[in-house]
Design goal:
heterotrimer, A alpha/beta (452), B mainly alpha (276), C mainly alpha (287), A: D-Maltodextrin-Binding Protein, domain 2, D-Maltodextrin-Binding Protein, domain 2, 9-stranded mixed sheet, two-stranded antiparallel sheet, 18 helices, globular, C: 287 residues, mainly alpha
Chain lengths: 452, 276, 287
């Protein structure tokens, strides 16, 4: 009987505990529930990145200076990068009314457009497209290419906040002058790969991203090469893809050479920006093609003690033209912001967004390290001289050589298809076959969706 | 004790030590990562002797930037709620299926069919449901969501345990006139305790380590440990040391839970009595 | 005893399943007959059985992923069940330190699988990972995530490491529940050690082991986090060397933006798994 008593007491304890917990949770909810404030709060959702941290500070500035005047308070939510787009897709497709402003990558402009508020009318409203004290903003402050990237079928959905480029980072102690052409690039890679040159200071000449198909950095790397060989994405004036040409072949051959001659680490097909950066941090790689923000980590003595004082950025190599100039491109993506179609405070959100991207907010972010899609900082010599990252962007000629992919709904899918085949080529697939398969897959996808 | 038995004991002890080493060796690596600087985690040759950097742990525990205390509390609340509910709801269900074959094989198969589907397809429809019921970012919402995953396990495991319990005690109690409910809770429940403990552990552990649904369905108020720890995975860097520290901290409540509940993982309370 | 009491016991569970699963399941079936994707989610076109046809006909999609999943199962399930039972037998014979040992053995399950996969990216990195470093030191070739077979084994080993405790704790509970009387009687009769296990212990544990087996099979089919984080289901695309069916469905839903195919795949998976599991269940269901 004593045993049975023990059993009863334990059950009661569990039951009581569960009931108490549920009651506590429910009462906490009701006690903490706040009635609607006088001020309207808009929520801006970011993925964890330095730009998000800048937004937190800039939003704080807005709250301190303009919340009273405009009645708009801004709250910034930062989410982990892991699963961010899954969550964002779920939020938008389900019709959630918060967050009011969402941050995404510019590749998703077309895909998310049904869930984002078109902004063209807001631009034409002087009460909204102006500073908190009424000074009107100029839409042409933003680069035309950036505005275009945020448009789908003529309507503006997303506004670009910051641009990110794919660039070359190299070891200054090993390589006196960065390669200008892809041929030089391969040659320098050979010289710095120990299996080719036993005196090489590094084990591998190059590290690039080779992961796919969910991570698509390798596709964007390849496009930089492809474009420099004069490849175009679509047949002019259409949406018919055209990759299977001499430019495509040349670009594929670069990948094939890198893999076949083992100029890249053997597990390169598992590399995203993270592994590429780590390879550089280890000191065992002479050059990498990676996203420009990794340079911040690479030049930080705390994070990259082995190489921080021996690395420099350069624009990606290109192809020498008949007149001696180099045709080169740096793949360009953006972090962009859009207003949730189901938001309950769209006008207020736009008011903040205008200030944040066209007004004072934009400069506040520049001061924190941002390279915006807005032309004003780049065209102002004082600003260029004060902020090294702006000067850097100009030195790398990023406004000229930066090139985004065309915006269309199925862009992310094509990127994944491309990344998958590139990964296979790096694993040993014949580059000609890889290119043909790539062309065929992308062509049939776009055909089936009625693009041409 | 014979020589043979001593030898057997030694072999057994050696094997147990091997098993323990296999289980915790990677965890030791994670702990070491947590006390290195972020730069040291990727340093080669790997460093084993270094000055420990406790700042990752301290930042997590003391600073408000990461909401660790909130995440720990939330995870505990959700874990206790979902485990408690799973047992309260699942045990009678298991008893009914075991003793009375309620619903037959089809009902039992239907119960586990939910665990056959990958979570990603539930994401959007479930989000819509939670959105309309205002269950997003609440403890009770997440607890119910986890219930769907843990309840089938609870029911099936407990059913198989109850199957093995001889019916003599229940039959005796029935003759005495006890109701089915009291038989179930007062007689069968204590005997099935080892099985109950095992599913309680599994359910509790699941709640503390599930990431995707926690990440999508919670934000500021009900954020759980995994969702909080993932903040160290950013767009341009991954902070390995901080991530490792979060993982280590998540183990603490789980270890405490194990310490408390293992008391019940003893030989069935009245099983010995069947001897007589 | 009232006849209806048995139904009352199952009603709460039934209601919960019904409530939370009815809408998603029905909606999922509906989506599988459309060409839904993120863009046209709220107004997709009906294409009826086209998704099913495409999945059933192409060898390189659903069936390839099922092949990978089955291969994966064949590696991890026997290992986990064998090791889980072995661990449980070892621990069951312990008198002292039992709780500590159990805690240590359960620790692998305390790491979120996503983070295990995330840390794996660091662990197996050819240049900065400690595993390749020490293997090269010993003169052995480091396992590479870029090699299809090695990648599968790496993912499998991590799965075995993490989920053997799952089988272990269930079997240990089963061993703890065994009636002393029968075991003592057998000991008196002379059955000891292996004989005791084979003829006394194991038959009584059969049902418990079977449940652990069923759930591990279902969960291993759904293995997602570790291969996803480590190598995105690759190497190889769209169906790579570690693209379990769960990753396959995810890839089509969110990466290739084809939710219709993902929904159809999940229905096919449900059918396949139901058939497979019911075969096992039939063996152990006591009528």
């Amino acid at each position: 009987m004593k045993d049975l008593k023990k059993g009863i007491t334990k059950l009661q304890v569990i039951a009581i505990a569960v009931i108490v917990i549920i009651a506590a949770v429910l009462s906490a909810y009701f006690i903490l529930y706040q009635p609607a404030k006088q001020k309207i709060t808009i929520e801006v959702q970011w993925v964890a990145c330095p730009e998000a941290d800048m937004c937190v500070n800039t939003a704080k500035y807005w709250n301190e200076h303009y919340a009273e005047k405009t009645g708009i308070e801004v709250k910034v939510t930062i989410l982990s990068f892991l699963g961010y787009f899954d969550k964002l897709t779920t939020q938008l497709v389900s019709g959630a009314s918060t967050p009011d402003i969402v941050e995404a990558w510019s590749y998703y402009v077309g895909m998310y457009s049904p869930y984002i508020e078109p902004l063209d009318n807001y631009f034409n409203d002087p009460k909204l497209f102006s500073s908190p004290d009424g000074t009107p903003y100029n839409i042409n402050d933003m680069y035309q290419a950036a505005l275009e990237t945020g448009r789908y079928q003529g309507k503006t959905y997303f506004l670009m906040h910051s641009d990110v480029h794919l660039i070359l980072v190299y070891r200054t102690d090993i390589i006196p002058k960065p390669p200008e052409t892809w041929d030089e690039f391969i040659e320098i890679a050979r010289q710095n790969t120990r299996s080719h040159n036993p005196d090489s200071k590094t084990k591998y000449g190059v590290a690039i991203a080779g992961r796919g198909p969910i991570d698509t950095t390798t596709w964007k790397t390849w496009l930089s090469i492809y474009w420099s060989y004069n490849g175009t994405y679509f047949k002019p004036g259409t949406y018919e893809p055209d990759f299977n040409n001499s430019a495509g072949l040349s670009a594929m051959q670069i990948y094939d050479t890198l893999a076949r001659e083992q100029l890249v680490p053997p597990d390169v097909t598992s590399y995203a920006f993270l592994e590429v950066m780590a390879a550089m941090q280890s000191g065992e790689v002479a050059m990498i093609l990676d996203w420009q923000p990794v340079y911040v980590t690479l030049s930080d003595p705390n994070q990259s003690p082995l190489v921080y004082d021996k690395v420099a950025m350069a624009p990606p190599p290109g192809v020498r033209q008949s007149d001696g100039s180099i045709k080169r491109y740096a793949y360009k993506g953006y972090n962009c912001l859009g207003i949730n179609k189901n938001s309950k405070h769209k006008a207020e959100a736009f008011k903040f967004l205008a200030w944040y991207l066209f007004g004072e907010g934009m400069m506040l972010d520049v001061k924190q390290g941002n390279t915006p899609a807005n032309r004003v900082p780049y065209e102002n010599q004082t600003i260029v001289n004060t902020y090294p990252w702006i000067k850097n962007a100009l030195d790398l000629q990023l406004p000229q050589i930066g090139r985004p992919e065309p915006s269309y709904v199925d862009l992310p899918t094509v990127q994944s298809i491309g990344a998958g085949f590139l990964s296979s080529v790096l694993s040993g697939l014949n580059p000609v076959t890889g290119l043909e398969s790539l062309q065929r897959e992308v062509w049939s996808l776009l055909k089936s969706k009625g693009y041409f | 004790m014979s020589k043979g038995r001593i030898l057997k004991k030694i072999i057994r002890d050696v094997l147990i030590i091997v098993v323990i080493l296999i289980s915790i060796f990677p965890i030791i690596w994670i702990f070491l990562n947590a006390i290195k600087t972020n730069a040291q985690t990727i340093e080669i040759p790997p460093v084993w002797v270094f000055k420990p950097d406790w700042s990752h742990f301290l930042n997590l525990i003391l600073s408000d930037q990461f909401n660790l205390r909130l995440a720990m509390l939330n995870s505990t609340v959700v874990a206790l709620s979902t485990t408690g509910m799973a047992l309260l709801i699942g045990f009678p269900c298991a008893y009914s299926i075991s003793r009375f074959k309620t619903g037959g094989r089809n009902f039992a198969m239907w119960i586990i069919s939910f665990r056959m589907l990958p979570p990603v397809i539930f994401m959007i429809p479930m989000f819509i449901i939670f959105l309309s019921l205002k269950l997003l970012d609440t403890h009770i919402g997440l607890a119910f969501l986890y219930l769907i995953f843990t309840l089938p396990l609870v029911i099936w495991v407990l059913k198989s345990f109850i199957d093995e319990i001889p019916k003599e005690f229940e039959e005796a109690a029935m003759i005495d006139g006890c109701s089915a409910t009291s038989i179930m809770w007062r007689i069968v429940f204590p005997i099935a305790m080892p099985g109950i403990v095992s599913v309680a552990i599994l359910s509790f552990f699941f709640s503390f380590t599930e990431f995707f649904f926690a990440y999508v369905f919670t934000s500021a108020s009900a954020i759980t440990m995994p969702a909080m720890a993932a903040i160290f995975i950013t767009q341009y860097t991954w902070l390995w040391a901080d991530l490792s520290a979060s993982i280590v901290l998540t183990m603490i409540p789980l270890a405490i839970f194990l310490a408390l509940i293992q008391k019940e993982l003893v030989r069935g309370l009245t099983m010995g009595a069947i001897k007589g | 005893m009232k006849v209806g009491i048995k139904y009352i016991f199952v009603i709460p569970a039934t209601l919960i399943f019904l409530f939370f699963s009815l809408f998603p399941t029905v909606f999922n079936i509906y989506l599988s007959f459309t060409n839904a994707n993120v863009f046209n989610y709220h107004s997709p076109d009906w294409i009826l059985f086209e998704n099913y046809y495409k999945l059933l006909i192409s060898p390189g999609l659903f069936w390839q992923s099922m092949k990978v999943t089955i291969l994966y199962l064949l590696i991890v399930i026997p290992a986990e069940v064998f090791l889980g039972i072995a661990y449980a037998l070892l621990v069951n014979s312990l008198t002292k330190y039992r709780r500590i040992v159990v805690t240590f053995i359960l620790l692998p399950m305390s790491i979120a699988p996503v983070f295990l996969g995330a840390l794996g990216r660091l662990l197996f990195h050819n240049i900065v990972g400690i595993l390749p470093y020490y293997l090269r030191f010993l003169g052995l070739p480091p396992p590479s995530l870029s090699d299809p077979i090695q990648a599968l084994f790496i993912v499998a080993i991590m799965d075995i490491w993490q989920w053997t405790p799952f089988v272990f704790i269930i079997v240990l509970a089963g061993l703890t529940s065994l009636p002393l009387s029968v075991i003592d009687a057998a000991k008196i009769d002379g059955a000891e050690g292996w004989k005791e296990f084979r003829y006394i212990t194991f038959p009584m544990l059969k049902r418990v082991i079977a449940v652990a087996l069923i759930f591990r099979i279902m969960d291993a089919c759904k293995t997602f986090d570790v291969p996803f984080m480590l190598i995105e289901g690759g190497p190889g695309a769209p169906v790579g060397a570690t693209t379990t069916i769960s990753i396959f469905i995810y890839k089509f839903a969110l990466t290739y933006n084809n939710i219709g195919i993902a929904a159809a795949s999940s229905i096919l998976l449900l059918i396949v798994l139901s058939i497979a599991i019911s075969i096992i269940v039939r063996q152990i269901w006591r009528e």
